[in-house]
Design goal:
It contains 18 helices and ten strands. It is an alpha/beta fold and 427 residues long. A hairpin with a 2-residue loop joins strand 5 and strand 6 (239-240). Helix 2 packs parallel to helix 6 (104-117), helix 3 (43-53) packs across helix 6 and helix 6 (104-117) packs across helix 9. The chain binds flavin mononucleotide.
Length: 427
Amino acid sequence: MKLLAPERRILTRDLETPQLHTLSVYESKGGYQNLKKALKMSPDQIIEEVKKSGLRGRGGAGFPTGQKWSFVPFQSGKPIYLLCNADESEPGTFKDRVILEKNPHQLIEGIIISAFAVRSKKSYLYIRGEYAEAARILEKAIHEAYERGYLGKNILGSSHTLDLVLHRGAGAYICGEETGLISSLEGKKGQPKLKPPFPAVSGFLNCPTVVNNVETLATIPWIIEHGGEAYSAYGVGTAKGTRLFCLSGWVNKPGVYEEEMGIPLKDFIEHYGGGMKDGAKLKAVIPGGSSTPPLTPAEVETATLDYDCMTKFGTFLGSGGIIVIPEHFSLITLLERLTEFYWDESCGQCTPCREGTGWLYKMVKGIEHGEGTLKDFNDLQKTAKSMMGTTICALSDAAAMPVLGFLKKFPEEIKAHLKTSAAGDGV
Ligand SMILES: Cc1cc2nc3c(=O)[nH]c(=O)nc-3n(C[C@H](O)[C@H](O)[C@H](O)COP(=O)(O)O)c2cc1C
């Protein structure tokens, strides 16, 4: 098993350093030197390095970061905004929190460099309402950065100016979706908007807007220091670099661990998670946050943590939230919790999502309580299918995918909960 050596870590190398969240300690570790270096480069050179790195967004969709930045119409004459997405609400995902609380200056440095690259003078850091402690730490860190001249007018004597505003959400999963986030920031209901136009062209206040995840932006200083090529030397195939994986569920050592993309999932669970708790047998693994379809134990045997392998198994790396499910845990109970969550979080704009999430929850609950028939099983599948790709944003898909995934990969277990009924019932 080849693991990432601690000194090769990109995001967590200094994480154990006491008081790393303070400016003086971050600077003692070389903090903000990459900003100085970046300010001597041209914005286009920075975008080029990020393209070369192969970095893909860590918020879930995995869109190439450099490519997204180059979609911005720099000559439109409108203000350009850079929004940092710290909404982190997908169940099983808690990696951004580690950066926000333990290493906020690495993120702030990443935001300043990225804003310079995309010609933005105003940036908002949108943080979920529940992250009160992280917001307190960030507020202080942003203040320190202003005091030291890293934020504000003519940063470090350069022509780059940036204001960074921390904005606390009110606790809604939908506000993590980039256009929902934009609506919320505009003071409206947190409801997504149709794409196109994509935010890079017309986003916040109808101006060009780049939305990036916390982990994505916190990676930028390292790319400036070492170059895009050095970054792309990490990982495999289309999955470059390292990632913060959140490990939860039935393991001995749940937590956030940085690893190189492409590591075998089984090794990851064994080494970082310390294996299954109480020696339990594995039933399934959710690989990328609760909206991603599960892997069976046979798939876990050969799965590697990269985009292509996950596609092969009909699932995604998503937000990096790995949830380990033991043999004794009921999958229908798990589905009941998940479907209730997505039902509760649907913004209600689109009919397939508003109605569909509630139907999924009701049908799953019925099956869990022994009241479901084979017809309900089939209807559940049909309803979930009808929710895929039919709405403004992907929350509907997020609700449907785990249902479809568990029904497809574990049909016997789900069917075992069905009411034994008269012949022909529900067929
Ligand atoms: C329902 C839904 C919820 C989302 N929640 C988050 C979130 O909490 N954090 C995040 O970074 N991206 C989230 N995303 C993805 C964002 O829409 C967007 O793709 C991402 O912030 C872009 O940043 P990246 O390119 O750096 O990944 C969500 C998407 C959907 C459809």
